[in-house]
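Appendix B, Record 12. Input sequence as logged:
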Amino acid sequence: MSARALRIGTRASELALWQARHVEALLRAQPGAPPVELVHIKTSGDTQADVPLWKVGGRAFFTREIDQALLNDTVDIAVHSLKDLPTSLEPGLTLAAMLPRADPRDALLSREGAGLMQLPRGARVGTSSLRRRAFLKRLRPDVVLVELRGNVPTRIAKLSAGNYDAMVLAAAGLERLGLKSHITAYLSTEDFPPAVSQGVIGVCARAHDAETLRWLAPLDNPAARLAASAERALLRRIEGGCQVPLGALAGMVKGQLELQACVCALDGSRVLRAAGSGTLSATAPLPAAISAAIQLGERVAMDLLGQGAAALMAHERDTLAVEAP
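Logged structural output:
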């Protein structure tokens, strides 16, 4: 009897398909691997492509329908950009694997090749992210921010056509699609803290689907797991989503997991920063290290909250509520 095929649920954008095919290749490379097939699923983020993300109600714009298909047994595996995935999963699902992290930085694409500080006054800069809008305004309060939707190649085409003078995109997506040559400059994580888990591919499955979990376990990368666990714990404690101007980045430095985070007002006028670190024993079991990473994320979150992050974000939410149609 032939093995049951593993069905991977994915969006149909070029980047989502690259990620799904990458997971498919990793699964197929395992000895005795079962057949793998891709199932395209349209999400609310896809169907509301002309609406700025911050005006779309709720969260999980690009993941909800795929995870629901997982719960409904329509697919066996869900592949996501981890930064799109809510910090609290639907009951019955588990984050089975986090793939090695690609470059977490944001990248500037400029039509004339100018760096961020060299763009002309009043330059039109495209972005769909409140986080990026906030940090852009902090560094260049004079630029005009223009909403940016569509898949990555479409965005680049709009830049070439003159719709924008520049735009900010995730470096990881550009590199995965072979579009690295379009990058004018990488933005420092100090000036532009990345989105939580940016650059990490997250793979979900049903928590009790032992057969599928068996094939996904070898794909999990401990370094990515620890960094993302700290960042996602921070975000979960702060109770933010993609509609919050918060950036964070964790990584191992000489045996310590270090985490830096920043919340910024949308107009760039105020910024709150916090950082922390924790020693992770090289001999400690991975679950213990993950627990320590989560505790680190929560400590840094409490530092930000102690500085007034909750009030700052509440003010920004009120501002958006007034601006939304």
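The chain has three domains: 1-99+200-220, 106-186, 221-325.
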